[in-house]
Design brief:
The complex is a heterodimer of chains A (353) and B (315). With 353 residues, chain A is mostly beta strands. Chain A has 4 helices and 28 strands. Chain A has 2 domains: 154 residues, no CATH class; 118 residues, Rieske Iron-sulfur Protein (3-layer Sandwich), CATH 2.102.10. In chain B, strand 13 and strand 14 form a beta hairpin. The longest helix of chain B is centred in the first third of the chain and has 4 residues. The two termini of chain B are 12 Å apart. The N terminus of chain B is likely disordered. Chains A and B meet through helix 1, strand 1 and strand 11 of A and strand 1, strand 3, strand 4, strand 5 and strand 9 of B.
Amino acid sequence: MSSRNVFMILLAMITISLSCNETPMPNTTEGDWLIPKDQVKDGGPGKDGIPALTNPNFINAGDASYLKDDDLVLGVFINGEARAYPHPILDWHEIINDDIKGTKIAVTYCPLTGTGIGYNPVIGGQATTFGVSGLLYNSNLIPYDRQTNSNWSQMLMKSVNGRLIGTVVQTMPLLETRWDTWKTMFPETKVVSTETGYDRSYGTYPYGSYRTSDFLIFPISNDDRRLPRKERVHGVIVGNKTRVYQITSFSDSITTINDTFNGTELIVVGSHLLNFAVAYERTLSSGTELTFSPVQHALPVVMIDTEGTKWDIFGKAVSGARAGTQLKPLRSYTAYWFAWGTFFPGAEIDSTK
Amino acid sequence: MIHLINRLPTLGICLVLTSQWIAYGQACCSSGTPLLSFAELGTTRPSTIQFNIGYEYNYLNSVFNGSAEYLNDARRQRRVHSLLFETSYGISSRLSITTLLSFTQRERQSVLLETGTPEIVQTRGVSDAILLVKYALLTSTIVSQQELSIGSGITMPFGSIGAELNGIKLPSDMQLGSGAWDGILLLVGSSGFHPFPLTLFGSLSDRLTTKNADGYRFGNEFLAILGASYSFASWIDLTLSSRFRHTGVDRFQDQEVPNTGGDWLYLVPGINVTPWRSVTLRAHLDLPVYRNLEGSQLTTTYVTGLNLFYSINLE
């Protein structure tokens, strides 16, 4: 065969291989979206490319040598058991599907917006688990449920695409705070082990200087610069309005803010030093309106009402006349300020000091 | 006649053979097309047209944090198939010009945790191009087999940066092009040792990047290559080279992008076969032997390539 023939054959093969310009795609994002589709971004790893954990291994607090005291954790106290889901794990997995003595929870965390929200994974009576879709909206995690493949907006707390579109998820109480604060509150806590089945550098933050710099990796629709972008704030959603409370504005001591917002009486309690903020309605189902004062050095008790009842950080009365009563949680969570600013334009910034 | 001593076996897996991106977090930057790695760096003989048609396969399944490799990450893979068409023309004994067009298919595969089924996303199409002008400061003669050339050029953003999945734009590492006009500087040299059938070769190159329309700018890139070619017969050469690659940190909207940039060292064995006077076939394997990357990155596990060279003397 002549060299010319070899050349021509190869050229023909290459030409044939390039003759179509197609882009075959899976069909997990088709259909209507409740959010602007052009603002939904592909984060890069692909669906399940960031592997959510399901029923991970837990260890005792004393064995969690991979955690530093100032590492942030998301903590729950369910069925009498405290469990901690540390940021150093969640930075790499973003979602942990767990079952605590029969109660299921999906701990969702977005490292880019700094939002940790507990999802109730029982939807319409069907238990599911959540995975990481690999998509982002306004830099925020879009989980998907494995029952229907519907996509959810973590911060909007509802399905925004798929069969469950429009469905609002029930949230579950979740506290974000420092590891040493959490251990002080719940010394018997279990904490997620680094034996996750995945090789990851759990001691290394995977986003470089992201959490301390002004830098955003993905575009956002509304860049509100009234506060530094990465300022951590606890936001409260009441009806169609939002108010945020800067964690750095709380004093080092536990502080209570008896507030009224959009017609709702609420209590916000927080501490800069202990690094937490939580919010509850302070009107009981009976109609009684409570007023709270802070309690120091008694964690997990953080406040006392004017009747002398003491309340813990999850809004449960632990002593006094109303012992056992549970304050109604608000739709609230902690996030970087820029996330509140872009998801809820015009969010009020609390000026109480 | 094709002079293989001028053909530095893969100048570099450059422009992006190694995908840099936040391997297990949201966000990524790009991988682009291995254009410079394909381009011929030596000058072309006067009045000669050289064609180089090649295929390269880049398999990315290694995840590094700094210089440490993770072991348990077969769930996510990237594959980049590239077809490249290069044409070089020797304008004079010292001046030559090269154009390089590319077509790329990118594949992203992740395995769904619950079902174990792979989900594959593909993009395919025209990618970026290169235009290079090279000038020979030294050319080989009967008494001297030393060559030294300088060159400069540009990469042209012919590849799309708008590929979408069901209306959702794909990340940079799945786009077909970089979207940016970049500058290229070259210094290439080689030396033969007649009658001993050994040639040493080396090169230095720099890619000076610019910002694309999305506000993304890949880090500048530096490549250094040193290698040797040994002719066992008139029709067969074996080559072995090392390639050092350094890329700076990418920037998006003028801010540094985490988990981008780093250092790579490759070992590149290759074989050149010349069955006919004007035709040469080349095969090479690029094996990374050292990586020290910024943050965590999914990066090249290996690269294989096949080339067919064909030259026509117009005189």
